[in-house]
Design brief:
Elements lengths: L35 E3 L1 H8 L9 E10 L4 E4 L9 E9 L6 E11 L3 E3 H20 L2 H10 L4 H20 L2 H7 L2 H26 L4 E5 L2 E4 L4 H22 L2 H8 L6 H30 L5 H22 L10 H26 L11 E3 L4 E3 L3 H18 L8 E4 L2 E4 L3 H19 L3 H7 L5 H29 L1 H20 L1 H4 L4 H15 L3 H10 L3 H31 L2 H19 L31 H10 L1
Antiparallel strand pairs: 1-6, 2-3, 2-5, 4-5, 7-8, 9-10, 11-12
Helix pairs in contact: 2-9, 2-10, 3-10, 4-7, 4-20, 5-6, 6-7, 6-8, 6-10, 9-10, 9-15, 13-20, 13-21, 15-16, 15-18, 16-18, 16-21, 20-21
Length: about 650
């Protein structure tokens, strides 16, 4: 029985799923049973006893009354019935001392609502990450290397087809259908592709069989080459199917995930999304290590088949989950605007107080009032006029090429490089670097199998470490960039990564026991080359507005396409020469891409300028340390 009590100290749902009650901050948590899931019971079961989960519980007052035979409890609005009573106070009334009422303090579990589309996306991200890192990596390359008669070019062609199809399908028909028709309907088409791909892949591996193994060459079985061409022809359309399925995961599913989250929660939820995929990328190799350890830790075709079958089973589950998406579960714009307005109203008082503390107002008779943040002083205008003035100044400065930090132009022989050219320089650098990396990144497992003679568990162990180290390295690079500078950090990191791949390419000339050193160099190279992406995105956003950023994001698809397509060239080069020769070509190309980053030095300051809102309460001066004029002039002359 529920009574209409005044308030409670936190936000929860009642036992029949009604909207939550008022919280301490004055906001509310609303749970729509048709759109949200309360995962508090799951969190309580998994880790409710840990200190980090104390936010799951609240302590609320409740009234207890009646007699011993007919007792009732007022749990308060939105409270779970059956809360743990941790304190009682009895009020005695009457000559006989009979109990008439009690006040109790209840420990109750709060609600933790999550949108159903969001929950689906996180589950799919976890399962797809496990499956993809389990079968579509070292295991698939080793399997194809055997059944194709140790031909690297066939593997390169297949990887190029899969990557290019994912890029092309993301534009049409996937992107077109998601925009013009329905996101959830397009995802259901992708779900069918997942189920079809898993079924066809399982059938194809079973059809290939293991009866045509002819001999053992360097610890690697060799397959009957007379069937290699036929198997290759069957795998080509299958790779296109997997490319289509991949475009669904990275396209409409991610868009529906975004549309189901309030805008203010985007950073935290995207962190959870990418963290989930990173964790899954380590679970897949761990599962593979368990399978290999159980079946002998050798490159046996039967063991590789088991890994693929397990991966296909997980991909089948991913496809089934994709059928559950609904457009109706996404947040409507009106609901999100109302929520944002409510948050703005709740924060308006605090914002006004902070604004008063930040402004240093100096006003004398006959002078215009101004506010100052140390080195910046501008007229104090009403908010609307101030916003219009800032927009006009930004447009004027952008036209003159002066709104960006650092130099506005730099003369390079017969070409004048201006600040607005920075995004083009970044794109050219990324394009060349991706072309070099795509040639070899897919073939590193085969290099360690054929030339270094690594066991399956040794190679999969490296791929367990790399995702964790990438997260740590990204944080370290962000910290280093605050002192050294963003472009300087990117240059140093990428040059170091290129140096490591050169050392790998020449490992046979200077290493006697080359196993562990080469593995260490590969792990460090993979971590460093992928740890500066946030810094590169930060530079791009400083030199491009929102519309331009979206345009460059679309051009990133071209970078992905060249990264995928270059694997075909890499496989052909390996068959014509060897792995080390192709690694050297990669180093040359990536070195050329890094060279273009030198052109950014005159334009990107060592530290980002602090915005006005970042001034502390005392109004202390905050000046960014930028390149001096002498340094900028000398760098321009060198370039």
């Amino acid at each position: 029985k529920f009574a209409n009590a005044s308030s409670s100290s936190s936000s929860f749902v009642n036992e029949n799923g009604a909207p939550g009650s008022t919280s301490e901050e004055g906001g509310s948590i609303y749970i729509d049973p048709a759109r949200d899931i309360d995962i508090a019971p799951c969190l309580d079961f998994c880790c409710g006893y840990l200190p980090c989960c104390c936010c799951l519980y609240s302590y609320v007052p409740a009234a207890v009354g009646g007699d011993d035979d007919d007792e009732w409890i007022d749990y308060g609005p939105g409270c779970f019935r059956g809360g743990e009573v941790i304190m009682q106070e009895t009020e005695v009334d009457g000559e006989d001392g009979a109990r008439t009422s009690e006040r109790a303090m209840l420990k109750v579990r709060n609600a933790f609502p999550v949108n159903r589309n969001v929950m689906l996306t996180l589950i799919i991200s976890l399962l797809h990450g496990i499956a993809d890192s389990l079968w579509n990596g070292t295991v698939l390359y080793a399997y194809l290397f055997i059944v194709f008669g140790q031909r690297n070019d066939y593997i390169g062609y297949m990887e190029a087809l899969m990557g290019l199809s994912a890029v092309l399908f993301s534009f049409f028909p996937v992107g077109y259908l998601a925009e013009k028709w329905s996101k959830s309907g397009t995802i259901k088409i992708g779900a069918f592709m997942f189920v079809t791909g898993a079924a066809l892949n399982t059938w194809l591996v079973e059809w290939v069989g293991i009866d045509d193994l002819t001999k053992d060459h360097g610890g690697i079985p060799t397959f009957d080459t007379s069937r290699s061409q036929q198997i290759f022809n069957y795998y080509l359309p299958l790779m296109a199917v997997w490319g289509f399925a991949s475009s669904i995961i990275n396209g409409p599913a991610l868009e529906l995930y975004t549309a189901s989250i309030q805008q203010k929660d985007h950073p935290s939820y995207f962190f959870v999304y990418f963290a989930t995929y990173r964790i899954a990328s380590t679970i897949g190799p761990l599962v593979s290590i368990i399978i290999f350890s159980t079946m002998g830790n050798t490159w046996d075709l039967e063991t590789l088949r088991v890994n693929i079958f397990v991966g296909m089973g997980i991909e089948l589950v991913v496809g089934i989950f994709c059928f559950a998406y609904r457009d109706a579960w996404a947040l409507e714009k009106e609901d999100e605007e109302e929520e944002n307005e409510e948050d703005s109203d709740n924060a308006s008082g605090e914002g006004e107080e902070r604004g008063k503390k930040r402004r240093e107002v100096s006003h004398t008779e006959g002078e215009e009032p101004v506010f100052s943040n140390g080195d910046l002083t501008t007229p104090l205008l009403p908010p609307k006029e101030q916003h219009e003035q800032q927009q006009e100044e930004s447009r004027t400065d952008a036209e003159e090429g002066l709104s960006l930090p650092g130099r506005s132009s730099c003369n390079l022989l017969c070409f004048t490089l201006r600040a607005e050219h920075v995004p083009y320089v970044l794109f050219i650098s990324s394009f060349i670097t991706a072309a070099g990396g795509g040639m070899t990144i897919k073939f590193f497992p085969l290099y360690f199998i054929v030339d270094v003679h690594f066991t399956p568990n040794a190679i999969q162990g490296m791929y367990v470490l790399i995702p964790f180290l990438q997260v740590v390295s990204t944080e370290i690079m962000n910290s280093v960039s605050s002192c050294l500078g963003r472009v300087q950090t990117i240059l140093f990191t990428k040059i170091l990564g290129i140096l490591f791949i050169v050392m790998i390419a020449n490992g046979e000339d200077w290493l006697e026991n080359k196993g562990f050193p080469l593995a260490l160099l590969f792990v460090l190279r993979s971590v460093l080359m992928n740890s500066t992406l946030p810094l590169e995105q930060s530079v791009l956003m400083d030199f491009a507005d929102d519309e331009q950023c979206r345009r460059w994001k679309y051009l990133d698809q071209c970078v992905s396409a060249i990264w995928a397509g270059s694997s075909a060239i890499g496989g052909w080069l390996i068959d014509q020469h060897d792995y080390s020769y192709t690694f050297k070509i990669t180093a040359y190309l990536q070195g050329g891409g890094v060279f273009f980053l030198l052109f950014l030095l005159p334009f990107v300051p060592r530290q980002k300028s602090a915005p006005i809102d970042s001034i502390d309460n005392e109004g202390e001066e905050s000046i960014s340390s930028q390149l001096s004029n002498e340094e900028e002039d000398s760098i321009g002359e060198i370039l």
